[in-house]
From TrEMBL:
It comes from Propionispora hippei DSM 15287. This is DNA repair protein RecO. GO terms for biological process: DNA recombination; double-strand break repair. Belongs to the RecO family. Signal peptide: none annotated. Keywords: DNA damage, DNA recombination, DNA repair. The gene is recO. Transmembrane segments: none annotated.
Amino acid sequence: MIYPVEAVLLAVRDWRDADRLVTLFSKEQGKLTAVAYGARRPSNRLAGSIQPFAYLDLQLQSGTGMEVIKQCEVKNHFRPVREELTSMSYASFLTELVIELCPERQPEPLLFDILLDAFSLMRTRNPRIVALAAAWKIVEISGYVPEWQVCVACGQALQYPAFFDAGAGGAACSVCSSRELQLDKPAVELINTLLELDFKQPEDFSVTGAALVQAEAVLVKYLLYCLDKPLKSLGFIRQLHAVNRSRSASTLSV
């Protein structure tokens, strides 16, 4: 059976002599894997379309094995994202996060929209903050949002600074925590702002470097606990930060 589907291309890898395996995310079917036969040949009609982050209009053939890409039309290449190193790094982080968090064939229409909106925003806004906002939204949709209001150990209302406990699923007070990762109120306020950010019409706002770094650190630590492994894309982003550290300002704007 051949059926139509619109999807974002999350990942692509070589397969056999001339083919490619692609991981897609569609609004109707969620994450799925398909094979693009002959896509590694320059003359193949699929070769130019099978690119990371592309928004595709596909005709897929289902059978006893993997889906097969029969036709492919590009709705948006998101070429500026793919060709600019910083944007590409953060877009790769988002696609890897979706691959790791989302099971096969589980539709998440809101997550699909978040990916498209994030890729669009990265062309005009700070990709680091866009990716952080999108990542926290993806975590929320996946049901992993930590507890910020009360201590996860004693249940008392939190007083800041608090401390983040990934294993307990949120913040702990100074009495109950192991004091491993400090969590200040500006970082929590930033995370809440990012979760509520309207990607269709984002309002301008500023964030201090300290709050940004802390919000990122909490996210990375929490993902490491939830996934039980580090995301490969984060290693490259750390290298990128090291290169750009001397040029970083103390205050960043979205």
